[in-house]
Amino acid sequence: MNQQNCCCCGGNHVDERLEKVMKVIEEHKTVKGGLIPVLHEIQDTYGYLPEDILKIVSKELDIPMAEIFGVASFYSYFSLEPKGEHIIRVCLGTACYVKGAQGLIDRLSKELNVEVGKTTEDGKFTLEATRCLGACGLAPVMVIGEKVYGRITPDDIPNILKEYQDK
Amino acid sequence: MAFYRSQVLVCGGTGCTSSDSMKILEKFKEEVKKHNIENEIEIVRTGCFGLCELGPVVIVYPEGAFYSRVQIADVEEIVAEHLVKGRPVTRLLYTETIDEGRIKSLNETGFYKKQERIALRNCGVIDPENIDEYIAFDGYKALAKVLTTMTPEQVIEEVKKSGLRGRGGGGFPTGLKWELTAKSKADQKYVVCNADEGDPGAFMDRSILEGDPHSVLEAMTIAGYAIGANQGYIYVRAEYPIAVQRLKVAIKQAREYGLLGKNIFGTDFSFDIEIRLGAGAFVCGEETALMNSIEGRRGMPNPKPPFPAQSGLWEKPTLINNVETYANIPQIIVRGGEWFASKGTEKSKGTKVFALGGKITNTGLVEVPMGITLREVIYEIGGGIPNGKKFKAVQTGGPSGGCLTAEHLDTPIEYDTLTALGSMMGSGGMIVMDEDTCMVDVARFYLDFTRDESCGKCTPCRIGTKRMLEILDRIVEGKGTLEDLDKLEELGKQIKAASLCGLGQTAPNPVLSTLKHFRDEYIAHVVDKKCPAGVCQALLQYTIIEEKCKGCSLCARQCPVNAISGQVKSPFKIDQDKCIKCGACLDKCPFKAIVKK
After folding, report:
1. Which residues form the 4Fe-4S ferredoxin-type domain (chain B) (predicted)?
2. Of B263, B402, B439, B495, which one has the fewest beta carbons inside 10 Å?
3. Residue B386 DSSP code
4. Helical (H) or strand (E) element with A86
């Protein structure tokens, strides 16, 4: 992810990701309400919404930057800042909450020395509290990247983190 | 067509997938091949079976053997013993299904006995990514019937006759909504499916989309015919990747079969569906906010009227229903509105899906006839409270609902009875709480949620929820007063009366209902400065039990603020004025000599 970040802050712009995004922008020029699908594509491709790319969207879809910023900042799924290599999401749905999810967040925050919503200094982890993931049968639930960890306790956390720290 | 002597159904719902059920499925394929029986055994990935607590779940037919919490390492044995030699592996079977060595049908178990599946009828039965399986279970039969034998008016009449009410929360009569939208005159109309299931603890819409996506597509097409629309949108949460993927597959297959697109069943009627992803905003579950989001804007609600039936998406008449509501439609058409109306109670017809979660033995998804009591759902189906704990409350309706207590356990579940008790049906989340749950903390949790999700458009919701949360924060920190409780009530009533949309109008409910039913607990927090459930950190005290303390000094060395002192080999003491209640000492004490209360 760190490598990816370089290319959108002024470096080499002729890359596959930009081509992919340009294609999606082109496809959505005639789609009613196409801005949000385009933002989804950019978020999936870059891991966040780089300002340079949003400027292109603004020009191509003829939507003012102010409006794009308004939409991007409204939805919690979109991020205007780059995220860590591994995104840790702890479910704070009710079922997880009553089964002790807050304890997981506190422990992660302590182990990684990072606040909720922030990224560790080394850029390895971003810690997020997320809305109900609908896996209530496994409560409390934590997701790292795509991998789901269910029915865990704060004491399981150091071992789980180890799997990612050395990578 | 191939015939198999046995079918292995592996649950592919989100819960089971999260515990590696797809790897289990691959392992089954591998093992079956190893034994050269791949032509005799069919391995099927299905939607959710409902009993998520026991996941990953595998069911083997024709016996109906229900294997629970299956691990990859177990697969080899199940194949070698059960599929090759015909001897079910009893050790892995769900204990409730074994009766003196005989395998009982699932429908005889406590969890399934009282259930009646209409919206969930295909979940856990068919392969959701295979349209042929849906068709084999009467799929698209309703659409054929509608397009070839019924007028739009007759379709609406049938839905009205069923008495179906919106399953997303409000409970507005579905047939009436269809009729109002049909009567609006316009050159273009839209059908929208609200799949922005945001209530924490509710996952029925996700399970329907994952387990039976075609039922929703079919119902939307029927709705399009009934109201005169040719375009539909499904607005689904981006947090549900499996549901999105299965919808994409289903739409593609339906188009290939000519069940979506131009001239469906050779008639003049054309209809197509597009998927739009949500982006993490709870308020988008509100219909006008959802439509703003589809239009590519900030998902903020508009004042009503005009209602979507008159002016919705792109200011055209729009019919918007929730996933579960749609999932009931095909059966209502095939079996008749009267059949559906014969189930449930006078004012709440049919069945309702509930997501059981929290402190309950059988976490999972259940569908029951309306009018069943909370006791039947929680104790008979849900298996009661685990670890011998006492039932304290059940929260229904998510952040818009309220808490019900032990004295309400025999209340029949209906839209109107729940509302009368200060809660609501909502989308069907049911979170059970036991004696270890602090009701003030739970109310604070919900308000923190709604405050965070308030879109900020109207003042009562934006500022009112913030003020309420500040008061609750004070209370859980032990700084609250009795006056604060009156303020909460007053503020709550005003927010309910003055907010623009459903989010604000219901946001105070969790606080108001707990204040009503658990006032003692609030008083314990503000007067005695105690948290009876032992949850609120600031109100707890850590103390060392003298008799258990060996004087090892480990706790004193752990304490970050030097609040613990004493002589080695004699009991230590915690200075309560210095203690910051971090709990580090309690975690480290090897003799369990430190308690919090």
Report:
1. 540-569, 570-597
2. B263
3. G
4. strand A86-91
Check if A7 contacts B (Cβ < 8 Å): no
Domain closes at, from A42, A74, A106: A74
Residue A142 in contact with partner chain B when CB distance is under 8 A: no
Q: Which of A71, A139, A150 sits opposite B297 (nearest CB)?
A: A71
Q: Bridge partners of B41? A: B6
Q: Classify residue A8: in a domain, yes or no.
A: yes
Tokens of B342: 């014969």
Are residues A61 and A13 part of one domain?
yes
Domains of chain B as residue ranges with CATH: 6-105 (3.40.30.10), 131-341 (3.40.50.11540), 351-434 (3.10.20.600), 439-526 (1.20.1440.230), 541-596 (3.30.70.20)
Tell me: the pLDDT tens digits for A68-111? 999 999 998 899 989 899 999 999 888 888 888 999 999 999 99
Task: For residue B354, report the phi and psi dihedrals to the nearest 5 degrees.
Answer: -125, 145
pLDDT digit string (tens) for A9-60?
444 556 889 999 999 999 999 999 999 999 999 999 998 999 999 999 999 9
Same domain, A95 and A41: no
Q: What is the CA radius of gyration of chain A?
A: 18
Residues A42 and A112 grouped into a single domain:
no
User: What is the domain-level CATH number for residue A93?
Assistant: 3.40.30.10
Binary contact (A74, B281; C-beta < 8 A): yes
- A80 is a domain residue: no
Nearest to A151 by CA among B19, B149, B561: B19
Chain-chain contact of A136 with B395 (C-beta, under 8 angstroms): no
Q: Measure CA B95 to chain center.
A: 26
Domain final residue pick, A74, A103, A123 = A74
Considering only residues 12 to 71 of chain B, which have any Cβ-Cβ distance to chain A shorter than 8 Å? 14-15, 18-19, 52-53, 55
Q: Is A8 assigned to a binding site?
A: no
Q: Kindly state whether residue A11 falls inside one of the protein's structural domains.
A: yes
Question: Which residue's structure tokens are 């394929």?
Answer: B29
Interface confidence: ipTM more than 0.85: yes
Burial B140-179 (b: 16+ CB within 10 A, else e): bebbbbbbeebebeebbbbbbbbbbbbbbbebebbbebbb
Same domain? A70 vs A93:
no
Q: For residue A49, which residues of chain B lie inside 8 Å, CB to CB?
A: none
A63 & A24 share domain = yes
- Using a CB-CB cut-off of 8 Å, the residues of chain B touching A150 are 15, 18-19
- The answer to whether residues A124 and A100 belong to one domain is yes
How far apart are the CA of A84 and the nearest CA of chain B, in angstroms? 19
Structural domain span for residue A10: 2-74
Query: Are the beta carbons of B590 and B552 closer than 8 angstroms?
Result: yes
Query: Greatest CA span in chain B, whole angstroms?
Result: 91
Contacts of A139 in chain B (CB under 8 A): 357-358, 363
User: Do the annotations mark residue A136 as ligand-binding?
Assistant: yes
Q: Are residues A54 and A90 in the same domain?
A: no
pLDDT in tens, B432-486: 999 999 999 999 999 999 999 999 999 999 999 999 999 999 999 999 999 999 9
C-beta atoms of A71 and B357 within 8 A: no
Domain count, chain A: 2
C-alpha distance from residue B105 to each of B64, B74, B98, B466, B472 (Å): 6, 22, 9, 52, 49
Both tokens assigned to A46 = 């870059």
Whether A50 and A96 map to the same domain: the answer is no
* Cβ atoms of residues B137 and B124 within 8 Å: no
Q: Give the start-end residues of each E strand in B70-146.
A: 98-99, 102-103
Residue B427 is encoded by which pair of tokens? Answer: 């989308």
Whether residue A98 lies inside any domain: the answer is yes
Chain A: give the shortest CA distance to residue B330, in Å.
25
